[in-house]
Amino acid sequence: MNTKRQQHTPAAPTAADYLIASRQCELMNLQYFLQMGKVVQSISNLVHGLQRERGASNLYLGSGGQKYADERGAMVGESDRLVSEFEQALAEVHEALTAHPVSSHLLNHIASALHGLEQLPALRARVDAQALSVAEATEAYSSLIHAFITVVFEAADTAVDPSIAGLLVAMVHLMNGKEFCGQERAVGSAGFSSGAFDSALSKRMMHLVEAQERCFEVFVSFADEDSRKLWHSLRAHDREAEIERLRQHGCSVGRYKTLDPELADRWFALMSERMDELKKVEDAVEGSFHTRCVERFAEARNSLAHQETLIATLDRQEPPAQPMLVLCDSGEDARAGESWDSAGVGQQFGRSIFDLVQEQTRRLQQMTDELQSAKEALEDRKTQEKAVLLLMDHRKISNDEAHRVLRKLAMDQGKKLTEVARALVSMADVLK
Amino acid sequence: MNTKRQQHTPAAPTAADYLIASRQCELMNLQYFLQMGKVVQSISNLVHGLQRERGASNLYLGSGGQKYADERGAMVGESDRLVSEFEQALAEVHEALTAHPVSSHLLNHIASALHGLEQLPALRARVDAQALSVAEATEAYSSLIHAFITVVFEAADTAVDPSIAGLLVAMVHLMNGKEFCGQERAVGSAGFSSGAFDSALSKRMMHLVEAQERCFEVFVSFADEDSRKLWHSLRAHDREAEIERLRQHGCSVGRYKTLDPELADRWFALMSERMDELKKVEDAVEGSFHTRCVERFAEARNSLAHQETLIATLDRQEPPAQPMLVLCDSGEDARAGESWDSAGVGQQFGRSIFDLVQEQTRRLQQMTDELQSAKEALEDRKTQEKAVLLLMDHRKISNDEAHRVLRKLAMDQGKKLTEVARALVSMADVLK
């Protein structure tokens, strides 16, 4: 038996023990993602609720408290329900998150989101009292929403299974795109209701449109087939063309002539519809994500059980004269081990455990390779945010202006935005 | 009090809870590294013991079993002692490694190393019986040693603290360099004792010399001051010059004239001395690594205690009229929170927790940034190994030949080896 060795205590863990531990680690990671999936879904719903609350609050404030009080009240009530669901989902995973902590970054971002949530009653009170402007209210809600989306980005970064990571990357970029859409809705509302789009407002709108497109590009490249189809039918809808016409109208005509204030209502309705449709695509991705988690978890659990049985069988057998056939998981080939002379007790067993270890090495390596593109997508976003912060700091410009500078750099140099951002960040270290 | 919110169960985790959980996650990670440090040290010692055993076994085999039997026996006994120490260290960390698994890759590589260890008695029996060649014995020992060094590489990849990661990267590259040195010792012995260095042997030696230098370069760039000094005095020693003279002599003269067989003994003695001196530098790095782990752990534990006290104090106080001064860890500034109106209950508390969360975000971001270079060094090695495997597979050439092709590519294109390797790997995906 290959678990006994002379001169060593029998309690020493064996290769087989660690092989199983490696598989168990994968299983535990998948279980963690099944649970995190509920938190992510609750965040998706809560973000949508807060976006609706933001919109209604802005209309309420914009009308000087004269209109939309009931609608706003309904949104606030709905958001509270969604906050409870989020807190419930978080409480269920709290033990797993903190006892076997995966990422201090993730925990800190959750702290950040919870802190924002703790400020929500005070924010609502200020809206009630009309004690802040539409811009200030938008900023406060956007900040809270951003904190929640950041939690999902961080969760995506902790994924080790490539298919799961990919779907999370798709979903969070869609969420982020929808948020930029919500901010665009607010900017458009401000422009149309005031009757004019000044230079700053136009630039902001342009930035938000471009930011959405970049998010949606990443979504498309990582999404599953069904969600992509849903997305394409959204894009093919007449609504998109009408929104584009309104954008053009606002930014071009809106500089010279006072705009028809009724366009404000039309704009708000269209953009709200768009966001609701985007939410449906988000739900589709979340559904695929959940299905994939369940599939992978079942696969991993079966693999583990199969391996444990196989290893137990190996332990019980007498050393055979011939090398044994190793029956592995269907689809996973047992590769031939190193070639040893056929003499030597324990070498056939050695080859079998060896094959299993080699197979695991190959599997994990392949998974890591496949994970690369998802990791890069997340890294690109972080690099871009860093580059933007550098530009803001260095040139004392706004977030939108910094994004514009970055985009221009990319266009002028004929390079991709992420390349330019990466170069900027690395140059900053050198020029510090 | 900011932990109470209307309509929500008081049991819901708060921002403060997650802030503390984030710090606890850091602490648990550092504790895990303190324990892993013992495993890493035992691996360092075991690898050195196996290298000595390999050397003695080769001399024994090379002399047809006529000489070095006693020396080999002593090495085998010493290695067994070191195996016990390794198993002991591993048993102590087994619980932590498997209950809160950090990396399925790491666990699988440990399985691989343990499997190799289980084959060691059989290998020794074959050496006893002189049932394998010097080359075969070298290959078998090298394979086992490689498995252990891979465990340390994988452990380095799980580090999140940049200073700890850096020292682990330094140490494992030194270990790897010492292993290439051991393989060079074997190649040189073969050449000098046979009296000639044919083309294949010369190429192999050249490859091993170059591979060592690359490892030592990375070591130097990540090592601490004291270890670097020790390293420089090793390089300044006369031994280095004599080894270089022997290399030149063997590879040039050794093609045309039969070499003096006594050079074989001189070569072996010099290279063994060199490896012992390298081990001392390795021990110095390990010492610095341990010291750093202890320091960071103490820092993190104090930070956590401080934060818990601070947060408890915040919870107990009445809302003050003025914003509170936040006393944070010395050296970590509390940054001003977003600007809110001074009206609004709970906002001052909000700002304090907000400050702590912001500070943690900044700290973690900075740590991740500083971690980049260590991560890149580990990634570079993996990319190079991938590129080598690709070339071996594509052109049906040996490991050494593939390395040579890669080096030539780098020279011809005037680029760094890692750049060329990265380009090759990405092209392979495209051309598949």
TrEMBL record, chains A, B:
Lineage: Bacteria, Pseudomonadati, Pseudomonadota, Gammaproteobacteria, Pseudomonadales
Keywords tagged on the record: Coiled coil
NIT domain span: 41-296
InterPro entries to which the protein is assigned, alphabetical: ANTAR, CheY-like_superfamily, Nitrate/nitrite_sensing, Nitrate/nitrite_sensing_bac, WH-like_DNA-bd_sf
Organism: Marinobacter qingdaonensis
Record's protein name: Nitrate- and nitrite sensing domain-containing protein
Domain ANTAR, residue spans: 364-425
Family annotation (Pfam families): ANTAR, NIT
Top-level lineage group: Bacteria
Coiled coil, from the record: 357-384
